[in-house]
Design a protein that fits this description.
heterotrimer; A mainly alpha (313); B mainly alpha (392); C alpha/beta (238); B: two-stranded antiparallel sheet; C: 238 residues; Rossmann fold
Chain lengths: 313, 392, 238
């Protein structure tokens, strides 16, 4: 159904939109740029990998477990690290650095886990090609159909949660005006905890999805995190939908854009594929210092309409 | 009047002094039990990272720029030294110097030939070293100026993340573009310390110490000067500094240019010390996150703190590497290499500092412009005046 | 009802209020007046647990409020209507009311919403609009409506009359008086334009530079020959 470059691009874009959405969610609720997203994603991949290695079957059935484990990592991070710092009203930079510390600890645990798996169970966890365990569907890899669906489902559930449930609305209220929200009797603590549960889960799920299109290594998350951030920044860091969209654009641009350029310019350009998302981010930031969300869309549309009318008359 | 004993006691009880003494004791112990080479390699890393961390502190601690791309300037220094000075020597002595210079099949033959020349001529060797450093400083300044362009426009978090991403970008460029520094393979760097071959480590260490002292004095001088006070004012309140007629853009640019030039010299010294330049080695973990951890441990904003932070962590790293088998050997039972504990240590240190010692080992002191005696005198005279004038 | 004893408070390390003693009696309107930057809002924030309390006591019917998080204070029946950003602009009116009545159960929420909307019928028409699209006066109405949603024992109202036309200010003040008379709500009212507030108030405090400079009957302060001129901008009563 899809050519391979598009199939891979869709999987990668879905993974980035999940992770970038999580980063944005955590930033707008707790002002924290979560560096630990890197190792949370890697952990998500290893959970799926471990369960698949030991129990076999369809690998997609283990994705919910990845999500849950990511949530657990998020809860630990919030209770142990983020909450005391938020109480102290720590600066953005301090919050960011604290998650970096957490990320490094997680990374060392992952490395040790890999050593353990290869020594005790004779597995090869340091270079895993998860797509080898995938199956075919409609003449293309199942991942390219299932993972965008997963991303869309998560997005829809998140949207319903935020607009239809009382707790979801209270999350939006806390994001917009934390003081008024807590004066209304909303416990901001619960809101922050919930955003770590969702954000962590999305990170781990994104990591598990990502491993379907790239080689899974202990530093997979570490390598990809600039692009997760690029997606979140492209989205403007103001609402979750922006982050999800930004991640998708960055991911798809990297795969599709580089395929296009390789055909046009030559295959040597494949080595610079990571430059493409950064270029998009840089250009967006230079034109719109607050990302996609900072663009006044209605104003833009209005001026385009006016220009058209002017051209007609 | 305080007697001399009190003064001595006060100074000795300072945290800085105690920590340095403990670290020196550890180093002496290592030197006695394991010999000097390990000490020199630890010290060399300590000197290089001190230079880089001091430059980071100038930008983050004194100016308040969220510099998450320290690796960019380090790369600028390292890659330039990897790519240019060797080529110039090769050109002067009729060796292949074009794009093929960095090709590993050519490079490993060319560099030994250059070494032969450098070995004989001490003036040339010194000149070469100096040229490398100046070149690195210039390219660092250039990259600092370039990064200052977005630094003016973007909010702190956006800027930090963008710089972080571009650090990775430069590393990948070096990794992919072979003519620069050899791509996936390492490019060799002509070694100016060839001439003192038997004592290379010692020579490198003392050169680095000298440069570190110069950098330290330079940064100390800048930060104590009116310019340094302007930087701090800008950090603490951009609005106030604008009200007082300071050009924020200019000041930030200056700080970034100076800081990046120093960091680039650090990067250059590192590749000169190792004798090779591998693009993939310049990760954000080693050259951005480690310096951040050193800086936070030392105490953001304090210069002496930087040196202490690097000292403590470098020595702890050495200890982990040396004693990992004997202390954490039980991990090997499950096949786990204790080397990963280095990451755990780094993470724990960062978290511990943030949670329990937010101001680091040496908290930044609020400095007064005038000596305290003078300020007291002024205050006294003001008080007298106000008591003379009757209240309205 | 609400008692404050020897309160020192501020934000993080910044000290703003010094040795505040204040009493808000049940079913009365207590007015706090004072010039800009006197610490009026900081006082309300200290009661709500938003500002940092360094020393002293804040009690509601004998229950200690000091250092309780804002949501706990709200649960005890204190309802705060801040001066700025007192509605959720990105949420619809219905969601705003729902959030204001966060502590109520489903049944109570519905009844209370109907009741509040009956008090402010003009809001009924905008129920599905985002609060950010309302005009200034409508916003303030919504803010008061949200304050009432919480079934408050005490309402803390911060500068309700800012930017309002004099006639509307008068009407708002009458409305506040009705809250006391008809619903029996205890009110702590902070005002900078003090005249109208003092007219409806029972008790008054004058707050200057973080210290209380006067306490007594509201009418006495209004007619005080020096203070009213110095701090309240009240012209001499003819």
């Amino acid at each position: 159904m899809f050519p391979p470059w598009l199939a891979g691009g869709l999987v990668y874009a879905s993974a980035l939109s999940l992770t970038a959405g999580g980063i944005t969610l955590l930033y707008i609720t707790t002002r924290t740029f979560n560096f630990a997203h890197a190792s949370m994603a890697t952990f998500g991949f290893y959970i799926t990998y471990i369960f698949y290695s030991f129990r076999g079957g369809n690998l997609y059935q283990y994705l919910p477990l990845s999500f849950l484990f990511g949530s657990l990592l998020g809860i630990i991070c919030y209770i142990g690290l983020n909450r005391p710092l938020l109480k102290r009203q720590a600066s953005t930079i301090t919050l960011m650095m604290s998650t970096l510390g957490y990320d490094l600890i997680l990374l060392s645990i992952i490395q040790m886990l890999c050593d353990y798996l290869s020594y005790t169970f004779k597995l090869y966890p340091r270079r895993v090609t998860m797509s080898a365990f995938d199956f075919e569907m409609f003449g293309t890899s199942a991942a390219s159909i299932i993972t965008p669906l997963i991303a869309i489902t998560i997005l829809t559930l998140l949207h319903l949660f935020l607009t239809r449930t009382k707790f979801g609305i209270s999350m939006r209220a806390s994001i917009e005006n934390p003081i008024l929200a807590s004066a209304s009797g909303i416990n901001s603590d619960k809101v922050y905890l919930m955003s770590w549960v969702i954000g962590g889960g999305m990170a781990a799920l994104g990591g598990a999805v990502m491993s379907l299109t790239m080689t899974g290594t202990p530093v997979m998350g570490m390598t990809v995190i600039p692009y997760m951030f690029a997606g979140a920044i492209l989205g403007g860091l103001e609402n979750i939908y922006g982050g999800i969209l930004g991640g998708f654009i960055v991911g798809l641009a990297e795969y599709v854009g580089i395929y296009y350029l390789a055909v046009k310019v030559g295959p040597w350009i494949l080595g610079y594929r990571m430059a493409l998302p950064l270029l998009i981010m840089a250009i967006t930031l230079l034109l719109f210092p607050r990302g996609l969300a900072g663009i006044q869309w209605s104003y833009l549309l209005e001026s385009i309409k006016r220009a058209r009318k002017g051209a007609k008359s | 009047m305080r007697n001399i004993g009190d003064v001595l006691k006060q100074n000795l009880m300072k945290r800085e002094v105690i920590i340095s003494l403990v670290m020196l004791l550890v180093l002496t112990y290592l030197a006695i039990s394991l010999g000097f080479p390990i000490i020199f390699s630890t010290l060399i890393l300590f000197f290089i990272f001190s230079i880089v961390t001091l430059s980071l502190n100038l930008e983050v601690g004194h100016t308040g720029i969220s510099q998450f791309g320290r690796v960019i300037a380090v790369i600028a220094g390292a890659f330039v030294v990897g790519a240019i000075p060797g080529r110039i020597l090769a050109f002067l002595y009729g060796l292949p110097f074009g794009l093929e210079y960095a090709d590993d099949a050519v490079n490993y033959k060319v560099v030994p030939l250059i070494h032969k020349i450098l070995e004989k001529d001490i003036a040339l060797a010194l000149g070469f070293l100096l040229f490398c450093l100046v070149l690195a400083g210039l390219s660092g300044a250039l990259i600092g100026w370039l990064t200052s362009r977005p630094a003016i426009r973007l909010r702190e978090a956006y800027l930090g993340i963008s710089l972080l991403a571009f650090g990775d970008f430069f590393m990948w460029v070096g990794h992919n573009w072979e003519p620069l520094v050899g791509g996936t393979t390492a490019v060799f760097i002509p070694d100016p310390f060839r001439i003192v071959w038997g004592y290379r480590m010692q020579a490198v260490a003392f050169t680095l110490l000298a440069i570190l002292v110069l950098v330290y004095l330079f940064i100390e001088r800048i930060t104590k000067s009116p310019f340094g006070r302007t930087l701090k004012m800008l950090r603490d309140s951009p609005l106030v500094s604008r009200v007082y007629g300071k050009d924020i853009v200019k000041i930030r640019t200056q700080s970034l240019v100076i800081g990046s030039a120093i960091a680039a010299i650090g990067g250059a010294l590192y590749v000169i010390y190792t004798g090779t330049c591998t693009a993939i080695g310049f990760t954000r973990l080693t050259w951005t996150f480690w310096p951040w951890a050193y800086m936070m441990l030392g105490g953001v904003g304090s210069n002496i703190g930087m040196v202490l932070g690097v000292l403590v962590l470098t020595v702890s790293r050495t200890l982990i590497i040396l004693y990992r088998k004997s202390l954490f050997g039980f991990l090997l039972l499950w096949g786990i290499d204790p080397i990963w504990l280095e990451f755990t240590l780094l993470g724990l240190v960062i978290i511990f500092i943030i949670l329990f010692m937010p101001y680091g080992l040496v908290p930044e002191k609020s400095e007064t412009v005038l000596p305290s005696g003078r300020i007291k005198a002024i205050l006294e005279s003001v008080r007298k005046q106000s008591s003379q004038t009757p209240e309205n | 009802m609400l008692n404050i004893k020897n309160l020192y408070s501020g934000y993080l390390k910044l000290k703003i209020l010094f040795d505040i003693n204040l009493e808000v009696p049940t079913r009365e309107i207590t007015v706090i007046v004072g010039p800009n930057g006197a610490g009026k809002t900081a006082l309300l924030n200290s009661i709500m647990g938003i500002a940092t309390v360094f020393a002293g006591e804040i009690t509601l019917d004998g229950i200690q409020l000091k250092n309780a998080p804002p949501y706990k204070v709200a649960q005890l029946g204190i309802s705060y209507v801040p001066q700025m950003e007192n509605v959720f602009a990105e949420l619809t009116l219905r969601e705003n009311l729902m959030m204001a009545g966060y502590m109520l159960n489903r049944e109570e929420l519905k009844n209370k919403t109907d009741q509040v909307l009956d008090m402010f019928p003009i809001l009924k028409g905008f129920i599905h609009r985002k609060a950010g699209t309302l005009s200034g006066g409508e916003r303030r109405m919504l803010a008061i409506a949200m304050g009432l949603m919480r079934k408050p024992k005490v309402m803390l109202l911060d500068e309700l009359s800012t930017d309002l036309a004099p006639l509307i200010t008068k009407r708002v003040m009458e409305g506040i008086a009705r809250l006391r008379d008809e619903l029996g709500i205890t009110i702590l009212l902070v005002e900078q334009m003090a005249k109208r507030a003092l007219e409806i108030g029972d008790k008054a405090y004058l707050l200057v530079s973080g210290e209380i400079k006067y306490s007594g009957r509201a009418s006495d302060l209004l007619h005080h020959p020096e203070l009213s001129k110095l701090y309240l901008g009240v012209k001499e009563v003819e």
